[in-house]
Amino acid sequence: MDSLTLPRSVLLALWLAEPSPGSGPVQRLLDAVQGEDEPHRVSTTDDGDTPASLADLVAVWASGPRTVAAVLPAPGDPAGAPASVAGAAQEAGEAVLVSTVDGDWAAVPRVQSFGSVYEPGYLVTWQVSRVPAWQNALVGQVGTLREAERELTGALSRATEALTSLDVARWREDAAEQIAALSAGADPRWSLPPGMDQRRVRVLTQAARLRAIVDLATGDDGAAVNLWQVDQRSTALRDVDRAARRALAVATHPAPPVR
What we know:
Elements: H1 8-16, H2 23-34, E1 41-44, H3 54-61, E2 66-71, H4 86-92, E3 95-100, E4 103-115, E5 120-130, H5 135-142, H6 145-166, H7 168-171, H8 173-184, H9 198-217, H10 227-250
Parallel strand pairs: 1-5
Antiparallel strand pairs: 2-3, 3-4, 4-5
Helix pairs in contact: 1-2, 2-3, 6-9, 6-10, 8-9, 9-10
């Protein structure tokens, strides 16, 4: 997976929140979310008619008014995921929450890889479950875009300190070069909804770069000489990753205009 690929749940939330129904926008959503994956499938814990594919599910959800948000939990940090799906969402690292006139839902992607490192492929199944109304609880946990931007600034400072401590250039030259490229701000070339607010785009980009940097930096213990140093650096980088995950999610959440 490309180091700056947005989580599937973030892309689905951003596109599904678009107000325009119809086959054209649905197909653009599928192109953006599925990318090079095999066509995404859907399973549900509820009785009754089950949409067989993501295309079917999106067509249902997009047929009326809806509120959508992504959450990006991690072990020990449910990050706003409803309790009934928190375990699955933490294992997957992501979920989409949807509220419609017919009820509230959570969709958690299960991803299976196949093929080789040279020709990888992915089978994705969205597990859809009914959940209690989630909007009020989420609003109290996620904060605003302004707060997310401020936290990202602090996270970048902490990441820089952690990487200096890791002495990344000495222990892994290839990672140092990739981190430098990420920090320089390469264009991620994402498929985002047209006309998307630039503040949200900026937050998404900063957060995705931070997560990619953390991923590269945690691939090795670097210059650590004892377990205490390893633990200190891991703690700092987990803190940075949490800020980045929160910012990615906040950029998808419905909120009043930020002045």
